[in-house]
Amino acid sequence: MKNPYQGLQPHAFWKSAVGSVSPFQIGGLWQPKFQVFKTDKIVTAGSCFAQHIGRALAARGYQWFNAEPAPTLMLAKDAEAFNYGIFSFRTGNIYTTRMLRQWIEQAHGLADDPTEVWQKAGRYFDPLRPVIEPQGFASEDELLASRQALYAAIRKAVSKANLIVFTLGLTESWANRESGLEYASCPGTAAGKYDADLHEFRNHRPDAIQADLEAAIGVLRKANPKLKILLTVSPVPLTATASGQHVLPATTYSKSVLRAVAGMVAEDHDFVDYFPSYEIITAPAFRGMFYAPNMRSVVPEGVSFVMQNFFADQKTAFGGQGKPTVKSGAKGSKGDRVTARNQHNDVKCEEELLNAFAS
What we know:
The protein is an alpha/beta fold and 359 residues long. It is built from nine helices and nine strands.
């Protein structure tokens, strides 16, 4: 052999793998490390795009695990309004690895339970998940009790899950200068009151993002040594940026950093894998066809194409698991409801609230 490029498979070359084929013929993008079984309990968390993955798995007969289901007698429309059945536990969107680390460490007693509470018009809002209750909590005690229930759900999900799918979403965030607590959103947007002296903007650097993700994974694996982790990166651009940049390069920075970190962490652990949903939606070869006219929202056809690749690459690597059962009214683990909202394309995305502040 004269050089290492001679004899490589066609998928190693852009011309044969991408440039000379139809976008819908591009495949084999993922060489999965481990098989995802239909009997596995699968937990989903992270940014908005993770909601698509969870419901797609449930619809194909996989065991999406809902560790914090809505109360038995709650109507589906009310469960939707109160953010049940969106992720495997009721955190709302977790956009950054710092937020993931906070939730995992707090739930497992490795970090103090935050005492900060936001108030408005006699109602109480959790700065870690300010939109989880549509009108806020009736009291601070009710808020803290709800958070304790969430911690129990996180511990339950981690201890019982075979696989956690976490979607990295943002590098930008806001935090309390004094306590270091990172918020789910900027104070004064979804809830709370912004204070320039108290609140600081963060645009996390790659080393910090990787350190937080590794710390979270360490806690997860200590609680459940057999747990596997599948990382993805959201293809949804930023709604807005507080970095001072134009939102387009700010988005490119954010997603590039997250993609790099996800790849490095997956390389470092045999129980961590990366699935390229981000590339399938955003790569030039797909010509932006999977975005809605706003060039931000991912259309149902895009989600479907992502998941077709997921299942096809699993089958190539490990063989089939019988004919897939596609469910119209998907459920997760036995007895756990997936709300009516989860059967459609709409997702809950706190970041989109920033659109209200555009000129």
